[in-house]
Design goal:
single chain, about 300 residues, alpha+beta, six-stranded antiparallel barrel, disordered C terminus
């Protein structure tokens, strides 16, 4: 049997080259003289290339915009960090100014208080500690024996009497205030000189009050709003220091004495600086007596 196969046609290369050259010449001629090829090519470009170019342009524009936004965001973040730093600095400065203003107001108040009692020598002190609770019924100040502080020296703040020194260390002292439950002060009504006992009571301090008792008010001249000061018969407190104002008054069951409530002259919930009167009741009394005796001798001598 004969095997079936393909008939091979062999064309010489020079004829093949000649044929390709003629075909190219014809295509070039047709391209220059007609638009038979340009329209399909243009359609191909318009259908494929143009959308691709638009996509590339869109992506380029998007990336450019995002790049500008990132630059702006970075600049805003840096500016925000600087502004936060400035805000923190200004907040610190404002807090410092507020604190200085508060301390200045306290010092002005102490200065006015000092002017109200020019006969007493005083030294300023700062509160550095207190017993637990809302009220300054006992507290510690930063002045002690090295500063001339002694037992029973009277302490003032706000508009009047705070208490007295009960313990003295080298550079600190402990003060018991007139609102303490163990405190009793011999006092009198400034308008009538009628005497009474002012007692501390932390329970009544919840309402901002302290109590008084044993007031002999025979003519009923003592009334609400009257000033109450320390009396000259007190053995611990110097005379004439403002304690507070009568808030309420009523006769006792014995119909001989009166008792009631006082509004303190000091805010016992907020005490930071105080004035300590240099010289306790005993030394001041002795000094006053000696001075009076010296004055009498001088007059006699003249």
């Amino acid at each position: 049997m004969r095997k079936r196969g393909f008939i091979r046609i062999t064309i010489p290369s020079k004829y093949l080259l000649l044929m390709l050259t003629l075909v190219c010449a014809i295509v070039l001629s047709v391209s220059f003289t007609t638009d038979i090829f340009s329209k399909p090519l243009n359609n191909f470009v318009g259908f494929i290339v143009t959308p691709f170019q638009q996509g590339v342009s869109f992506v380029g524009t998007y990336l450019s915009d995002r790049g500008e936004e990132l630059v702006q965001i970075k600049a805003l973040l840096e500016e925000n960090a600087k502004l936060k730093e400035q805000v923190n600095q200004l907040t610190t400065e404002n807090n410092s100014l507020q604190q200085e203003k508060y301390e200045l107001n306290n010092l002005r108040q102490l200065y006015k208080l000092d002017e109200q009692y020019p006969d007493y020598e005083k030294v300023g002190a700062r509160v550095i500690g207190k017993d637990p609770g809302n009220w300054f019924h006992t507290f510690v100040i930063d002045k002690g024996s090295e500063d001339g502080i002694k037992l029973d020296m009277n302490v003032m703040a706000g508009s009047g009497l705070v208490g007295r020194v009960v313990y003295v260390g080298p550079n600190w002292s402990k003060v018991i205030s007139i609102i303490d439950d163990k405190s009793n002060v011999s006092a009198m009504a400034l308008s009538t000189s009628d005497t009474m006992i002012v007692s501390g009571n932390l329970e009544y301090m919840k309402d901002g009050m302290i109590t008084f008792s044993q007031l002999i008010n025979t003519d009923e001249n003592v009334k609400e709003g009257d000033k109450i000061v320390t009396s000259s018969i007190s053995d611990k407190y110097l005379p004439g220091i403002l304690i507070g104002y009568i808030s309420s008054i009523k006769p006792d069951s014995n119909n001989l004495t009166y008792s009631g409530m006082l509004l303190p002259a000091v805010d016992f919930a907020h005490i930071e600086e105080v004035l300590v009167i240099i010289g306790n009741k005993q030394s001041t009394t002795i000094t006053t007596t000696q001075t009076d005796s010296l004055s009498k001798e001088t007059v006699s001598g003249n």
